[in-house]
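INFO  loader      accepted 1 record
INFO  loader      residues=424
INFO  predictor   begin
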Amino acid sequence: MKNFILEGHTKVVFGRGCVKEYLASFVEEHGPNVLLAYGGGSVKRSGLYDEVFRILRRAGKQVVDLPDIPPGPTYEKALEGAGLVRENGIDLILAVGGGSVLDCCKAVSLAAVCRGDLWAGLWDRRGVVDLSPVPLGAIVTTFGAGGSMNGCAVLANEALHVKYGRDHPKCVPVFALMDPAHTLSLPWAQTVSGGLDAFCRLMEGYFSYPEEEDLSDDLAEPLMRGMLRALRALMRDPGSYEARGDLMWGSALSGSPLIALGKRTDLPFHRLARLLEEATGRPYTHCLAVLLPACYRRTCERRAARSARFARQVWEIAPEGRTEAELARAGAEARARFFKALGLPASLEGVAGAALERLKERAAACPFPPSAASRWSPESCRRSSWRAAQPPPASPGPARRRYPHDRGPLAVPGACIQKREPGG
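INFO  predictor   done
INFO  writer      dumping tokens
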């Protein structure tokens, strides 16, 4: 993939060396004080922190650090960052990392200028933001659901034991720098996590209403195919810059408002996965992976035509000799084989009974928009979440390989599956 610049609400610079080439010119447009936010130690171990710090200092900026942003950022961390912004007169927040760092920084940019309590005023309820958040820039180092090009953020309030996502368009980053080379140090599990998150985001839009075919669907289909192709390529060659570039740009586009224009993207994959993660303590990606079959099974039953098109256009399954229902089931089988090849679980076995009861309560009260577009009742949410926590049904035997595009699990080099500290 060649380097390019896209300018809309967010100016995106993509390509090798883009941080060194463009960061100084971007920060010149803002005041002298910069809050540099990041997650764990990988940003420093990789040398990226030192590179960014030197560029900021050469540009005459005073740098204040906000380190150790955890996966699944908390309201308390956002308040800590907001305090640093106010105390130091911060003019620009620079997020270096992935989705968690971006989510936290969006909340910080709002909290720093919010009159009163951010959670009660803007996060616990929907409403119009009449504030001007502190400007936010991003240096993306992981794959994910495209937070670099939208105002969406998820924040956990540990005191209240809740986790909500909100979309505040004024929090969209003013610029984003994306160099696929910065993802080379990611462990395999984190690569899969980001790719799956972005793929499911596109699926949410694709299976949202209205049912009629439109240009948004035509844009989403090749994006999903491209992300599947990139993940397969990375299973063969984890160091492929081109595959990492495709996955990084596809992840960014998955969160772009452009892809889902005219759609009601309120299907429950991500919301239920957050509930399942909180109730069971299992990794978010595993929760998403085991919820997807339950949600997709329901979609296949009720929307065979849409599911058949998904199988044909995304999984590239030949329709000849199959009914719509058979084609939809073939798509579900292809998805299951691919998830298994990625090393994702089929269920969350061993979940304690108390956690399952808590899960049922949370799922039944899941706060979905009261629209006809979602068509998900609290009981549907409860059933899908419950199925995800059960052991998978016994398999009748190995599935017959019918499709040339899906040749079963691919070997992943051991160096890419060793445990490392998550990046960003």
